[in-house]
Amino acid sequence: MKYTATKNSNPINRSHNKAMPKYQLIIMRHAKSDWSEDNRSDFDRPLTSRGMKAARQMGKWLKQFLKHEQYPIDRIICSPALRAKQTCHLVVSALNIPENIVNFEPGIYGASCDNLIALIERYSKGVHSLLIIGHNPGLDQLLCYLSQNPPPANNCAKLLTTAALAVLDYGSSVISVNAHEAQLRYLIRPREL
Length: 193
Description:
The termini are close together. Helix content is 27%, strand content 18%. The chain contains 4 helices and 7 strands. It has one domain: 3-Layer(aba) Sandwich (Rossmann fold).
């Protein structure tokens, strides 16, 4: 289910609007990873070909979305787990932005909602648009905590399925880690594109 607080969640069809929100947090879960190799640790699991395709697809969606925003992504914080790094590289490539805005943050791997909040507080200073790429269940918990209007889960009780992303708006207020202050603008899952 494509969730959106606005009428049309396809950024390609929206007209440019100068009054768009000034501050936003984008939360993205890593794309589908490979469980087939038993000798790899969870940390070292690579993306599947389906996961790579979904990461590229979401990167393209994000690129179209950002065309209509006042500010591009200023900073990306990403788990150093292989599947998250590969997702990040594919998204950065689709966005055609410099990799030097990416911080591989060990604290994201296995992070609780509280740990993610602390990382967002640390990395969002002076930033208009922050992208975090990580793992569940922490990201689902974070989305519910920050959003004024938590979205419905899918039939597997997940909000952020693999490669899904959520865009939280803070309007003219800086990115905040206070509960229920952000407006959920989009929740996009690859299968819905």
